[in-house]
Amino acid sequence: MGVPHYKLAMWTFLGSECFFFGSLLATYMTYRGKTQSGPIPLDVFDPAVTSISTFDLLASSLFMVFAVHYAKVGDLKKMLFWTGATMLGGLIFLGFQFYEFSHFYHAGLGFTTNIFASSFYILTGFHGTHVAIGVFLLGSTAWAAARGHLVDMGETTEVIGLYWHFVDIVWIAIFTLVYLLEYT
Amino acid sequence: MAGGHGGDHSGAIKLYIGIFVALTVLTVVEMIPLFGLGDLPASVLIALSVVKFVVVCYFFMHLLGDHPIFQRLFFIPLLMVVATIGVLMTLAGSWSLNYRKAAVLDRAAVAAMTPEQRGEACLARAGVKDCCPEAAAPAEGAAAGSAGFDPATCQLLARHDSEAIAARYRGVWSGDCNAWAKSAITGNEYCASPGLVLDVAPAYAAVKEAASAKDPRFDGFDAKSDADKLAVLMGVGKEVYDANCAACHQAEGQGLAGVFPPLANDPVANGGKADEHINVVLKGLSGKVINGVTYAAAMAPWAQLSNEQIASVVTYERQSWGNKGEAVMPAQVAALR
User: Fold this and answer.
1) Taking the model in full, what pTM does it have?
2) What Rg do the C-alpha atoms of chain B give, in angstroms?
3) Closest A-chain CA to B194
4) For site-directed labelling of A104, which of A124, B40, B211, B295 has its Cα 20 to 30 A away?
5) Does residue B145 carry a pLDDT above 60?
6) Where are the alpha helices (DSSP H) in chain A?
């Protein structure tokens, strides 16, 4: 087809990831509101934490396109800088998720406390896992780029970038369906 | 390479920044309800998120201008997923629900509800199995007094399909809770241990109503011979027993070891203890030691049954499965009621 193979593979993978997160979101949405015991989302949600996480991930997406852009024009220094900034955004997101989970737990929301807790932790936990994997992938890409191991730095960075943006758009869906809808 | 793309270069960066600003503005709009600054309907919030989603796909992930195979690889699964979520939510009746409505155990909300509303809420949202945690695995040694319905009820629940149960127990959940806790963050009180105590009165009102229509088999009962009286009592008694008692005490009166006492060979069902036997049916029983076994599960009172029905079922119990108790007449039940 004349398209880069890694990119084709990544888009195929992201298509399958739609099914993965789709099933978790389907579970959350199907059970939404079907609990008789607290805490319910409004008992534990913290709008400030969620907002900062959301803007943080959005900013990291911008940093990611910068990194891809400079990788494509062959500017290693700037590519490394923006890749590092993206990773930092991911780590900050993970920090807030850790903070959020521990806060929820201390507010009485254990993993099996109710159907909200189980479906929420599974969904957002797997999203956080993807962020962590993304940070790892970005780190390895930056390391390989710095060492000159990459045959095509632009393409590799773009493919990893696709993964990172996917994690960001999954958060767009989670942010709306899990968090925002509780405030309507 | 960098130099050759100079013009493009700053143009692309500017575009990215412009997209980012647009996404930020949309996100700020989305946050209006989050901070209580105004209301936005769910449809608007979902539309905003779809716009953000598509913009990231087309501009940050470069689907715009890239080979169309990538769009197909991504959007076909995505649409399948969206359709699946929609179908599942429809099948599960989830569209009209949300967690704010689900705060049925919020103490103030529960207090404001009638038992019927609570029962409706429980069954509509949670289904019978969630209303009765024990229903999933009720049989041997179902722990008496643990959270959820009492074991006798769970036994009933487990033995019937959920629709029959929904019909029978609609509107009977009392909304009680073993332990209320306070959310450290919002200060709301919520139920930390939903001990859903069954409030049987409304359900039994229906049984009582049916019972008040007098059974024609008792027409001219007092004028009948003793043998004919016994025949009527045993016939009606078996029906009442099978409908109301067999779920716990079992069809042959053998009970369920350690949970529901057997009636066969029961001391009260034999010998001259008819009054005690009637009282158990009329008033219920709990914490009883029978033949050396302690039964923690409580038996509900069955006063909603008519005098004729109670006389019949007590007679049936006293003269079945090898029991040798005397027959009981409706007048005896009336005297003890």
Assistant:
1) 0.60
2) 32
3) A37
4) B40
5) no
6) 5-30, 41-44, 47-72, 76-106, 115-146, 153-174
